[in-house]
């Protein structure tokens, strides 16, 4: 159990923040399946200050998602601190500062992983948000900008000095984006020196692996990102591979309904948004290609549900091959308004 401020976190594994994925519907599902808390997608502080409705909307959540961490990004101290007050008015438990986004249009302007090149500024942001909102503030970092500038120990020290409550570490540099593999030894090194809880992140593929990483590297919690898409079962020791198609289909329909409620529109916009989840739910289940192609063309939700029901599947998985993560990354879904 981890506690800071009024926040108590129970559990070992959490859904990593993911733009286009970790919205309220998927957070509700993953919390129910065992994710230790809920992180929102990252939200632009500039857009919050401009009153952008879409950005504010990304902070809608249900009480069942608590503890809820609102993740924000920005490069300007005053903007970040003032926007944090707007975020705080929606009563999150924690505000998290994104210091890890590698996408050029974020990091090359000094936000996200760009803050790794100016950790004093990041420290001032943490302190400013804390004082402005009275909320616990956490940060999500990478190991450094590139392999020539691995400043993770300094970053952690500065953030601790600024009063950060916990730090999540994705064990890659900004330059690596999603290539190579996460350096868990560096994450372990951070944990051995840090005075605040450290959450480890990078390339974790199963619940079991998360527990092993937690034990081996001493981290307080493990974040799972890409492998959790279409697989909320990953947050407990219940394996998706052992689920029947009927059980998987129930979760698909539940998720779709939550999205329809959350994004109401006459043209079933939620269904379009749901496609990226759907592809991952059916991956490696032996779902027929032709039905998949048809379902991905359908724009009416009732037709989608009818067509899905008509697919005949063996109740057990046919394939157990590894889910391929290579074509998915932060840039896939990031659409900054
Ligand atoms: C589609 C996608 C969107 C992401 N969006 C965010 C984000 O909004 N905020 C953030 O801190 N990290 C974001 N990330 C990074 C993940 O939280 C995580 O750090 C990274 O994917 C490594 O973990 P994994 O190997 O378990 O996927 C995103 C990653 C992906 C794949």
From TrEMBL:
Group of enzyme by EC: oxidoreductase
Main function: Catalyzes the synthesis of 5,6-dihydrouridine (D), a modified base found in the D-loop of most tRNAs, via the reduction of the C5-C6 double bond in target uridines.
Protein name: tRNA-dihydrouridine synthase
Residues the record lists as binding FMN: 17-19, 71, 140, 170, 225-226
Keyword vocabulary terms for this entry: Flavoprotein, FMN, NADP, Nucleotide-binding, Oxidoreductase, RNA-binding, tRNA processing, tRNA-binding
GO molecular-function term, one example from the UniProt record: tRNA dihydrouridine synthase activity
Transmembrane regions: none
